[in-house]
Amino acid sequence: MKPVLQVPADVNGQGRLKYAWQKSIGNLVAVTGLNKVVSIYDRHGDFKSSFALPGLCTSLDWDKDGDILAASQDRSGVLYLWNAHSLDVSTLDLGIKDSVTLCLWSLNSQLLALGTVKGNLQIYNHRTRRKVQILGKHTKRILCGAWSKENLLALGSEDHTITISNAEGDTLGQVSLRGDPSHLQFSTFTGVGSHEVQQSIVSAIIVHKTIYLYDIDNMSDPIELAFQSRYGDIVTYRWFEAAKMVIGFSNGFFVVISTNKEDIGQEQFQVRNHKDHLSDLTVSHNINQLATCGDNCVKIHELNELKDVYSIINVDESQGKLDHLEWTGDGQILTVSTMDGTLLSYLTKLPVLGAAHATRLAYLTSLLEITIVNNVEEEVPMKFEVQCEPSFLALGPYHFAVGMNNRAWVYPIGDETQEVERSFLGSISGFSLNGEYFACLFEGKVHLMQIDPQSTSNLSSDLQQEDGGDQESRMFPDDGKTDVITCSSLTQEFLIFGTEGGILCYFFIEDWQYVNEFRHVVGIRHLYPDFSGTHLVFVDDKSDSYLYNPVNDALLEVPMFPADVRGVVWENWPLDKHVFVAYDEDKMYTYVFYRDTVEGPSCVFAGNTKLPYGQKPLMLYNGEVSCQTLSGKIAIVRLTTHNHQEDQDLEEEELQASLQKCIVLKRFKDAWSLASAIDTTESWEHLASAALHHMDIELAIRVYRQLKNVAMVSSLQSVKEIENRNLLAGYIAMFTNNYSLAQDLLLASSIPEAALQMCRDLLHWDQALELAKTLASDQLPFISREYAQQLEFTGDYGNALSHFEKGLTNLPKHKEHDQACNDGIVRNALRTGDIRRGIQLAHSSSNKALQKQSAEILEFMKMHNEAGALYEKCELWEMAAGVYVKSKNWNKVGELMKKISSNKIHRQYAKAREAEGNFMEAAKAYETAKDYENSVRVYFELLHNPDEAIRVANESQSVEGARMVAIHFMKIKDYSSAIKFIVVSKCNQEAFEMAKAHNQMELYADIIGTDATAKDFLNIADYFEEAGNDFLAGKFYLKAHRYDKALEHFMDSKSEDDQHIEFAIDTVGLAKSEKLTQQLMEFLMGEHDGNAKDAKYLFRMYMSLAQFREAARTAIIIAREDQAAGNYRNAHDVLFNMYNELVQRRIKIPTEMSQNLMILHSYVIAKVHIKQGNHLLGARLLCRVANNISKFPSHIVPILTSTVVECYRAGLKGSAFTYAVTLMRPEYRPKLDPKYAKKIELIVRKQDKKEVEEELSLCPHCSHSLPTTRLDCPECKNTIPYCVATGQHMILADWCICPMCNFPALHSQFVKLLDATDSTCLMCRNKVDTESLNKLDNPNLQLVHDEE
User: Fold this and answer.
1) d(Cα 233, Cα 253) in Å, to the nearest integer?
2) Strands 485-490 and 494-499: what pairing?
3) What is the pLDDT of residues 603-650, one digit of tens each?
4) 283/917 Cα distance (integer angstroms)
5) Is 375 exposed, middle or buried (0-12, 13-18, 19+ CB in 10 A)?
6) I need a labelling partner for 64 at 20 to 30 A (CA). Which of 349, 376, 496, 579 fits?
């Protein structure tokens, strides 16, 4: 709060002050103290006048107009009256001896009420100088009083009474009290109930403890309001709003209560506003604020937000304790006095007075101070003292202007040049500035005047001389015109004004002449141009608003414009110059002007934003409105239409709302980012539509590429280089399906023929024909043909024929076009009934397609023979035969039968031949038509040829034919053949009964196959069960899904090669039943019949149940048994098959299984390599086998013998010696083959331990060098895959896999082995094509796969 007045204590004397602000205008304040002098100051703190009193002042009050100040004193009955206009003081002798204690001016008249120390009342009429004295109104000192709006006077006295009197002093009512009254006030509020009336209430504080409320119409029934003792004594109170009262208490509290009858006295708010003491409070209804004082500070609250402190004014303790508060009538100044005699005034509300030019703002920051800022360009704020308290403010690029009434002062900005003062012939209602001129609107006229005539350039002077005119000043309207100007504005180049008659004028200052005049239908009330003046918004007398373009006189109605608009501000951000904001008292309304859209210029409403209370928008920049506040500051309000966010963490709905805002504002770069964040088809399509609407082809292409809309991208690329605006807009309208607009735009473009082409493409033929008459008459035949084709399609054959005839050109260069027209003439001539002409033209034509169409038309018209002839002409034999059949022209049909493959026609022909008695030809025709039932019937019944009938039934598998053959075989008692054909005829139950009756069940079971139902299988199973054939009963119970009975019969049956066990295993595998599995397990273990079954069946059972881990363990056991028995190949195959099964199921291979398979495979390939003469590799593989000789118990001696022999032959004498020593053991020596015994003994005696060094190769895991036959790496501890051809470990450079079993192999060695073994893989024993073997490009993947 800015201090505006301070009267020190020594001016008025140490002690409490009395002061009163001038009513109505609130420009003067009168103050007096112990010095007995009344001083008058203006609101700016300047001393105006003073006068002395003979005694201490007892009361001060201003009349209703603020013209007369009344002051009473305690020495005599003389009243002092000070005139605010003449600054003179006069005295009024009241003619009484007692002193005046109270003087009160009426609220609405020149009556002054005077109360005395003895309780007398005198009413003085200042206008008539009449005095009315009422003696004995009270018996003691009159303490307080108040006037009502109805001119009723309430007085309170030390005699503990309150009286209500009229303007003549007559007592209307009186009430007794319990103590001294104070702070008498009038108020009105609406009563409750069925009779709602305004009631006048008088209120008073009684002995600082309670508040009494009296209805002046019923003073005998007062309402007493008491409060909590912790609040302290009642200091004062104020009424506000309809029926609310705020009460201040000595302990620092203030409380808000309601006085409505239904909740009277109810506390609605309370707060301890001051810690120690509250001395006064006051309310300003004008600015809706409450102020309290105490504890050396003043606190201000908004009445609608009492819980928040709006402002705090701290007062130095040296100035004394705060005493009394008072606001001026307009709420602009708050005054507080202290107990020590200091008077302080603070500016709490300024007139909301501001102006803007571009991004620079000027606004009132004190009653006589103007501040100019430019927050956008970050200029240093400039403050200027002005001559008067202004009522208007204007800003230009180099000057600002203030003024009041008919005077104006123009001040330079940033220049020490003296201000320019101007007076006008009427009150100023509008003022505007540019760089050189100002325009003043007053009394329906505009005065355009140069700000500083001395500053004009020599060039301007020369121009003035040439024009013969004066460019320093001009009055509008011109002489002789009576138009009343209602509004005006000044841009850098134009003076723009509007009149009551609806004329909008542009005056070009440089040329000093009018350049544009627009006539509106009604008067123009307000106008708001943009910075350059090239667009403006004006409001007419109907409160309708329009956006006007003076370049082409285009007028656009502004939608949803506020009815009580207070102003319009245009966007100053360079990229958003097309945006403007209108505002009223509550909201700001954002509008966007689109200069160029497909539909032409338009103005749209973007949204509204709440305007904070009391604020005035001055300038708009990038969506932020700079508003002037009541406290003389600038606040920034962000428009809701511009508060879009690009945070991708927002909800989709918020992103969609932001996208919509960006599109409305044409901020397509931001819109693209938001659409990318949302990334839905709808959001992209929305952006694409907006881009097309604004004719932004490049953006539209980008968006449609994002949408992968190839057709639209291609279409837009084809038109993006078009420069003609109407042509481009027409194409865009066409692409967006707005064909009516597209036609109008294309016709107005540089290529109007495009409208014709569009109508043709849209099949709008009537419009196309009309346009072609004026735009392209040479296209009429072609349009007629296309129109005729559509008419023909829709069935309008008569008009189609007419347009086909109009389409003929008879020009050689249009041969194909004429051919199409002639074809159309043929078709439509037939359809319209001109049959002879149509047939004649069709036969003479060489167009087979036309002949087919004509034939179809004739067929539809049931002219079958004519249609058939045309079908024959175009070689459509089946269609010709079809129509001949319809006409029963069998001779023609017979001629065509060899050329026909249609079953339907053959069937019709067969029926016709059968009806004629030609049965053999009918039977063959039926068979050709695949109507085997009728063919069999004719052979049986009409030709009596059963052999041919049986042949047809066998070949065709016809159900009905088979039934007839079955009946034939039953008649000749050939039941086996009958059963066969009954099954074919789907009569399974009948076949079953026949098989059962003639002991042909096994035949029936073979014939029925897998196509029968579960019931059929069950019947067969029951039959074999009764017959005691357990195996077949089980087999058919299995097919019928009766797994329990099937297993029971399989376990009870006997079969060759144990086939019943295989079926039992299959049964359990399908049943997936633990109970049946347990039964089969017991059966296989021999618990059922005491005969344990081969372990391979147990293995089969686990495989059938998909219990692969158990199957693997069983496979190992089986392989071990085969190894023990010497069946090494069988053991190898068992392990290999199980290995593959586990790999396919992605189950880890047991180490024992893979180890056993490796050893067995090493033994198998060792023998192959020895036969091929590769003794060294064979010896090393046999060493691997010999190291695991315990796994070959049946052939220990032969294997060791072979190992010794091969090692010795290959130069591995150390290994030969080792295994020879083993053979010399007592348990093996007797079994040694005699022909090798001496040689082995010799090897042992010589003890030659020389060994050929084994070749090294790299480990595929870690590249460590190790022997080729070693399968575990000592460096990385990994097991290395082995080659199925050599048993050596794999190397990365020579890696391939067997395509049949997927086992790895060294490519070079595998190819050699396949060539030597008839292309057979020794692991899987499958044939392998060597050409299909390729080295792997990335064997590491296979290596990882093998490890997994």
Assistant:
1) 10
2) antiparallel
3) 999 999 999 988 899 999 999 999 998 778 899 999 999 887 655 567
4) 124
5) middle
6) 349
Cα separation, 366 vs 369, in Å, equals 5
Task: Tell me which amino acid residue 213 is.
Answer: L
Highest mean pLDDT among 466-470, 776-780, 844-848: 776-780
The residue written with tokens 């956008």 in the block is 376
| Tokens, residue 15 | 């002690």
CA nearest neighbour of 248 among 214, 205, 285: 205
3-state secondary structure of 377: coil
Q: For residue 139, how many other CB atoms are within 10 A of its CB? A: 13
* Residue in the structure block whose two tokens are 């037939």: 830
Digit-coded pLDDT (tens) for 544-591: 999 999 999 999 999 999 989 999 999 999 888 899 999 999 999 999
SS3 (DSSP) at 131? strand
What are 1267's strand-pairing partners?
Answer: 1256
Lowest mean pLDDT among 478-487, 571-580, 725-734, 849-858: 849-858
699 close to 673: Cβ distance less than 8 angstroms: no
Query: Degrees (nearest 5) of the Cα angle 123, 100, 17?
Result: 120
d(CA 1060, CA 583): 99
Q: What is the mean pLDDT of residues 1147-1169?
A: 86
Q: What is the DSSP letter of 107?
A: S
H/E element holding 294? Answer: strand 289-294
Strand order of the β-sheet with 78-83 is: 57-62, 68-73, 78-83, 89-93
| Token pair 């691997």: residue | 1184
Please report which confidence band the pLDDT of residue 468 belongs to, taking 50, 70 and 90 as the band edges: very low
Q: How far apart are CA 1230 and CA 1244, in angstroms?
A: 16
Q: Which residues contact 1178 (CB under 8 A, 6 or more apart)?
A: 1166, 1167, 1169, 1170, 1206, 1210
Q: Starting at the edge strand that comes first in sequence, how are the strands of the sheet with 244-249 ordered?
A: 234-240, 244-249, 253-258, 267-272
Return the residue matching tokens 């103007």: 370
Which tokens go with 27?
A: 């420009």
- Give 1228-1241 as a DSSP string: TGGGS-HHHHHHHH
Q: In what order do the strands lie in the sheet with 297-302?
A: 280-284, 289-294, 297-302, 305-314
Whether 1189 and 1195 have beta carbons less than 8 Å apart is answered as: no
1086: which 2 tokens?
A: 């021999």
- Render pLDDT for 924-954 as a digit per residue (tens, 0 to 9): 767 666 676 676 676 666 766 666 766 766 6
Per-residue CA distances from 379 to 60, 372, 383, 435, 970 (Å): 48, 9, 12, 19, 119
Residues whose CB falls within 8 Å of the CB of residue 333, separated by 6 or more in sequence, listed in order: 4, 5, 21, 26, 43, 327, 345, 346, 347, 348
The CA distances from residue 718 to 231, 283, 693, in Å, are 84, 72, 17
Give the whole-angstrom CA distance, residue 865 versus residue 880: 9
Place of tokens 């024959």: 872
pLDDT score, position 998: 60
- Strand-by-strand arrangement of the 399-404 sheet: 392-395, 399-404, 407-412, 420-423
Q: Interior CA angle at 901 toward 898 and 907, to 5°?
A: 95
* Pair 1102, 1110: CB distance under 8 Å: yes
Tell me whether strands 68-73 and 78-83 are parallel, antiparallel or unpaired.
antiparallel
Under 8 Å between Cβ of 155 and 165: yes
- Amino acid found at 716: L
Tokens 């060039």 -> residue: 459
Rounded to whole angstroms, the Cα distance separating 1157 from 1142 reads 14
Amino acid, res. 87: L
The rounded distance, in Å, linking the Cα atoms of 773 and 766 is 11
Q: What is the number of alpha carbons within 13 Å of residue 53 lying toward its C-beta?
A: 32
Which helix (H) or strand (E) element contains residue 1216? Answer: helix 1213-1223
Helix, strand, coil % in the chain, rounded to nearest 5:
40, 30, 35
Q: Identify the CA nearest to 1187 among candidates 1172, 1207, 1211.
A: 1207
